[in-house]
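Researcher: First entry.
Model:
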Amino acid sequence: MATTQQKAVAPKKQSQGFNGVRNAFWIIIVCFIIAVCFYKFFLGAPGHFVDGDNTKEVLDSNIWGTIYKGGVVVPVIHTLLLTVIALSIERLLALRTAFGKGSLTKFVQNIKAALNAQDFAKAQQLCNQQKGSVANVVQASLNAYKDMETAAGLKKGQKVAKIQQAHEEATQLEMPTLTMNLPIIATIVTLGTLTGLLGTVTGMIRSFSALASGGGADSAALSTGISEALINTAFGIATSWVAVISYNYFTNKIDKLTFALDEVGYSIAQTYEANHTDEA
C-alpha cells in the first residue's frame, strides 16, 4: 500500500525539450579550441604584421595584430568569454523548457482559479498543456492531494503536511536542472578580470624587459607594449561584464520561477485545509 502511494506521489515529468548540458567540461574544451584557432589563424595572420611575420611589429597599428601581441593569455580570456556566451545560450534554452509552453503568470492564475473551483480535472489539464518544471511540481502536489483524500488514519494537519512535503520534494528534484552551470558563470565573473590583469602584468613585464635589454627608453616602443598589454585588461573586463549580466539575469528568472512554485504549493495546501474537516 505504501509503495502504491509513493508511486502516486512521485512527479510525472512533463518537460519536453532541451533540459541543459550536464557536462559543461566539453563546452569549455570546444570554446578553448575555437579560441586557440582564432588566435593562431586569424589574429596571427601574416596580413596584420610587417613583412607578414607575426614576430615583428604590427602593421599600421592593426587592431587584430595588436590583440595578437597580447600574448598567450589572449586565447585563455577568449575561452572564458566564449564559455560565458555558450553557457548563457544553454541556460536560456533550458529555462525556456523549465518555464513551460505558456505564460507562467497566467498558468499560476489559472491553477489557483481551478483549485478555488475544486476543478482538479481542469488543473490536471493545465499541467499537461503547460509542461515544464512548474507543471511537474504542481502535478506532484495534485497527486498528493488526491492521495490524502483517500488516506486513512491521518489528521487534517498531517495530510496538509504530506501535501507540502510532496511539493517540496518535487521542487528539490527540479532545482538542479534550473541552477545547473550557473556556478561556472559565477566563477568567470571574477576569473575574467583576474586573467585580464594577469595578461596585462605579464605584458608590461615583457615590454620593460625589452626596453632594458635595448639599453634605452624608446617611448614609441613603450607605448606600443603598454597598448598590447592593456588589450588583455579590456577583454578581461568585457568577459566579467558579460558574465555578471548573464548570472544576474538567470538567477532573477529562477527566483521568479521558485516564487511561482511556492505560490501554487501554498494554494494547494490551503485548498485542502479549507475543504476538508479534521478526522479524529
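Researcher: Second entry.
Model:
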Amino acid sequence: MEYHNPVLLKETVDGLNIKPDGVYVDVTFGGGGHSREIMKRLGPNGKLFGFDQDEDAQANIIDDERFVLIPENFRFIKRYLRFHGVKEVDGILGDLGVSSHQFDVAERGFSTRFNAALDMRMSKKNDLDAFKVVNEYDEAELKRVLFDYGELKNAGAMANVIVNARRDAAITDGNQLKAVLSRFLPGHKSNKILAQIYQAIRIEVNQEMDVLKEFLVQSLEILKPGGRLSVISYHSLEDRLVKRFMRNGMFEGEPERDFFGNFEVPFKSIEKLIVPTEEEIQINNRARSAKLRVAEKK
C-alpha cells in the first residue's frame, strides 16, 4: 500500500520555483512524494530538509546526502533549521492535514471507516489523545472543540450527551462514540457529520491551528526575499489562516495604512487558488477538498 499519494504534486513543487542550488523545506514529509519531486529539481549543491513528527514517516527517508529528515513538529521549524546552521531558505512546502497512511492504519484512530481506540495523535509522543479529549474535557471545552473545529451547530447538545454518557463508563473507541452521538447522525448525513466530529477532535489533539499559525509566522522570518511558500490545505479553517496570512501577514484584522492609505504586505500572491483537476480527484479521492496557495516573500 502506498504510504501517501501526494496531492497537486507538480503544481505545489512548481510553485516553489526551484533553484538548483537552493535550500528548501518540506514541513510535511510523510511518504516523501513532494520531497522526491523537489530532489529531482535540485542540483548537486542544493539542500532539502524534511520535517515529520510521525515516527512512521522515518521508514520513507531519502538516502541522499542533500536530504535531512528532522523528526519533529514543524511548529519548531526555525529552531531546528538553526540547529542545522540554516537561517534562510529559498522555499517552504506544506501539505497540511492527515496522510493517507494515517487514515489507512486503523489503530491510529483517524478514520471513521474503522473502529479503533480513541487516539488520533500525529506523534505518539503527544500526551494528549482523543480519549482524553472525549473523557476528560469538561462540557464547555468539548463544546468549544466541536463548534470551533468541527463547525457543528449542535456542538452544545453533543457535548452534553458525551458528558452524560461517560458518567456510566468511559468512551474508549470509535463505535462507542458513534453510539453515544447516534441521535445526531441521521442516515443521509451520518458520514459527513461524523467526519466533522473526528476532524474537531483531531485538530484539538494535535493543536493543528496553533501549529499552523506558529509555522506561518516563522516561515516569513526564514524565507529569503523572493523565497516561495507553497501550502495545501484541506478545510476552511486551515485555508482561511493561510489565505489571510499570505494576503497581509496577519491572521485577523488589516495592516496599518500609511499617510497615503497604502499598507505594506510581506508577500505577493503568485497564483490564484489552485485546486485539483477532476482527473486527479478520480485517481485520488482525498484530493477533492485540497486548495493550494502560493506566495512569494517581497
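Model: Note on the second entry: Residues 87 and 222 are 6 Å apart (CA to CA).
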